[in-house]
Design a protein that fits this description.
The chain is 0% helix and 45% strand. It is mainly beta. It has a 4-stranded antiparallel β-sheet, with no helix packed on it. The chain is built from no helices and 14 strands. The protein has a single domain, classed as Neuraminidase, CATH 2.120.10.30. A hairpin with a 4-residue loop joins strand 7 and strand 8.
């Protein structure tokens, strides 16, 4: 739906604009470098428990999970945010209602990182309580606002806590 020149994507809450230096919409893979806007949009569709990559013509180019790209152990429930990682070769997403962070390979959907205990909120090591805005930094550290625990976690790629917590 187009409202006052802004794309409104229903239940979608997290959007990431992608660029394509060649303007080639034939591949779902996002480009590694910036360029002209190609109209691709990554959507965390929390109301339907999925991620979508769509083009400017509203065609679904890719979705997760699917039969060929199964959800991680514990499910893929209420993805609130999603961001590309590893120069477009991965996607990190937090599931607020599932108390987990999941990073998947793109476009295969293979789980490459998971943190938290599905549907089990907590505050001790290995647990999250309503994670929000998980990001992978350039050095590989994953940050996340652990909302109900009122803290920000900095995690090493292996899933262990880095010594920083604020």
């Amino acid at each position: 739906m187009l409202v006052a020149g802004v794309l409104v994507a229903g239940a979608a809450t997290a959007l990431a604009l992608l660029t394509d230096p060649l303007g080639d919409d034939s591949s779902p893979r996002p480009p590694a470098s910036s360029g002209a806007f190609s109209g691709r949009l990554l959507i965390a569709d929390r109301g339907n428990d999925r991620l979508l990559l769509v083009d400017a013509h509203k065609r679904i180019l890719w979705k997760y999970p699917t039969r060929g790209r199964p959800a991680p152990k514990g499910g893929f429930y209420f993805p609130d945010d999603a961001f590309f990682t590893h120069n477009g070769n991965g996607i990190i997403s937090n599931q607020e209602g599932n108390d987990t962070i999941v990073e998947i390979a793109f476009p295969s959907g293979k789980v490459i990182f998971q943190y938290g205990h599905p549907k089990t909120p907590g505050a001790s090591t290995g647990y999250l309580n309503q994670p929000d805005d998980s990001y992978r930094l350039k050095d590989g550290t994953i940050t996340v606002a652990d909302a109900q625990n009122c803290r920000i976690l900095f995690q090493l790629p292996e899933g262990r806590h880095a010594p920083r917590q604020r």
